[in-house]
TrEMBL record:
EC number(s) reported in the record: 4.1.1.20
List of catalytic residues: 389
Family assignment from sequence similarity: Belongs to the Orn/Lys/Arg decarboxylase class-II family. LysA subfamily.
Organism: Hyella patelloides LEGE 07179
Function: Specifically catalyzes the decarboxylation of meso-diaminopimelate (meso-DAP) to L-lysine.
HAMAP family, per the entry: LysA
Description of how the protein assembles with itself and partners: Homodimer.
Domain Orn/DAP/Arg decarboxylase 2 N-terminal intervals: 72-324
One MF term in the entry's GO annotations: diaminopimelate decarboxylase activity
Listed cofactors: pyridoxal 5'-phosphate
Keywords attached to this entry: Amino-acid biosynthesis, Decarboxylase, Lyase, Lysine biosynthesis, Pyridoxal phosphate
Gene Ontology BP term (one): lysine biosynthetic process via diaminopimelate
Transmembrane segments annotated in the record for this chain: none
Name of the molecule in the record: Diaminopimelate decarboxylase
Amino acid sequence: MLSTERSLENSGLRYLPQVDDLSNPPSPNQQLLPLTAKVNQKDHLEIGGCDVQLLVERFGTPLYILDEFSLRTACRQYRDNFKDYYSGDSLVIYASKAWSCLAVCNIINSEGLGFDVVSGGELYTTLQAGVNPDKIYFHGNNKSATELEFAVETGCKIIVDNWLELKTLTEIAPAKSETPVEILLRLTPGIECHTHEYIRTGHLDSKFGFDPNQIEEVFKFVSQQKAIKCLGLHAHIGSQIFELQPHQDLPEVLAQWLKKAQEYNLPIQTLNVGGGLGIRYTESDDPPSIAEWVKIVAEAVEKACKRYDLPLPQLIAEPGRSLIGSSCVTAYTVGGSKEVPEIRNYISVDGGMSDNPRPITYESLYRCVIANKMSADFTEKVTVAGKHCESGDVVIEDATLPKTDAGDILVVTATGAYNYSMASNYNRIGRPAAVVVNQGEANLIIERETYQHLINRDRLPERLVNSAN
Ligand code: LLP
């Protein structure tokens, strides 16, 4: 008994999710490992009913392992809590910049959510996954004319960010669409929140959205355009936020703008409050649950609309990280190690900053376990190094782990958001494969990039070939 308690506290077991009943799951964003994570009789980590060691034998490493149950649970918790807490119509749209690929879009679409896309590429991916354009919202602070034409042709909604875009759209729209193009206007709310400087967007000094001081001019211009129809207003305050207060404050600002829009007879029926709910990357992270976030937002919108005597708008939220971040882990194979006496011990893995650029970009912290030694005591403090030619390529500094050998499988938790989508081919390393796991079944959703993939789009001009010998 004592020894079980000790290893629970002091082994990979401590990161297992606290789930008594999968029919009533907790909020995925508060867990370090996916909801279906377990340890099997071989002392191996199992996700979605699949032994991680067997997945690695079959698909290789590095490998993104996406737990379908956790992803679907997060979608349902967002969707159903909005139904419970908001009296008007609501729509949750997935910020697909967190991870855009056909299978992820397919799963989220099948849960009835819509999509936020930020480029022609993300728009194309959602369309190819079978998403109805009516549920797609196109964001971005510098959409090209080609992207805008593509968006108008598909009939998706466009979240207009600035004057140039507004004017380009009024020129493009009449030729490309018989009906007015439906838009939302993005405004900068001037709300500060505590998160990394690079991922704050709501403060006034932000590259995103119209300056609220210009709001009347924008409303006036939009109200005079026949080719566009303004359906709503949008604001987003930032990402990986644990505080509820800024989300509670935002609807008040949006409602004030909505009131102003009435003076210009704009047919506004939608408020989009953005995303931003954080997830747990380490034990000390303590994000609110999806239900708590939805409740605060829904109540704040109702209260603000009441105060300004506005009819309840359609309420849109666009989470990315909290929908998918905690559903995925990355499995690596442990390679060499190095002891620097009295300073630190390194172990190296077969990936790093090219499959997870977050530590080197934002100094993000992660946790890891050894998937084939789950209950072994954590006796070591080691720095998990990536394999790229750069000293800063460290996946986790000072990780606590059991004694680790070359060939062990090291699993980094909570890698579903902004990992694959920010992956690169630095050092000409192919991007990893990804699998989706569910009830003992594993399916490839992204193929591993091969050497051939890496040179597929390279071109060698004839004159260089000729001059080589
Ligand atoms: N809506 C808008 C307009 C956004 O800009 C974002 C994220 C979201 C929604 C979704 O936010 P989320 O729910 O995921 O927090 N690469 C950074 C995160 C950048 C977030 C950009 N915008 C990272 O790895 O932390």
